[in-house]
Amino acid sequence: MEVILMIIFFTVFWAAVAKFGPILVTKGPQDDLVRCIFLLTAVVCWLFWLCCYLAQLNPLLGPKLDGKTIRIIASSWGYPIKDG
């Protein structure tokens, strides 16, 4: 549930940047360029955030630990692994 809420929150945030960003800029000869920059910035930042967030949910690579390190970590956490 929290994953969906985070995605919705940041989608709304970057949509607001794309929608209301051009309003904050004063009128000038390059209005279309400024609107395009705000839109592209919002889309690219949202897409970058989404890729990073989703990559952390299901990482493709995990830590590579040898057996000794795993036993040390397990015993320090109170779950000793018996050799055998």
UniProtKB/TrEMBL annotation:
It is found in: Endomembrane system; Membrane. It is a multi-pass membrane protein. GO terms for cellular component: endomembrane system; plasma membrane proton-transporting V-type ATPase complex; proton-transporting V-type ATPase, V0 domain. It comes from the Eukaryota. The chain crosses the membrane at residues 6-25, 37-56. InterPro entries: ATPase_V0-cplx_e1/e2_su, ATPase_V0-cplx_e1/e2_su_met. GO terms for molecular function: proton-transporting ATPase activity, rotational mechanism. Keywords: Hydrogen ion transport, Ion transport, Membrane, Transmembrane, Transmembrane helix, Transport. Pfam families: ATP_synt_H. Belongs to the V-ATPase e1/e2 subunit family. V-ATPase is a heteromultimeric enzyme made up of two complexes: the ATP-hydrolytic V1 complex and the proton translocation V0 complex. Subunit of the V0 complex of vacuolar(H+)-ATPase (V-ATPase), a multisubunit enzyme composed of a peripheral complex (V1) that hydrolyzes ATP and a membrane integral complex (V0) that translocates protons. V-ATPase is responsible for acidifying and maintaining the pH of intracellular compartments and in some cell types, is targeted to the plasma membrane, where it is responsible for acidifying the extracellular environment. This is V-type proton ATPase subunit. It comes from Drosophila gunungcola (fruit fly).
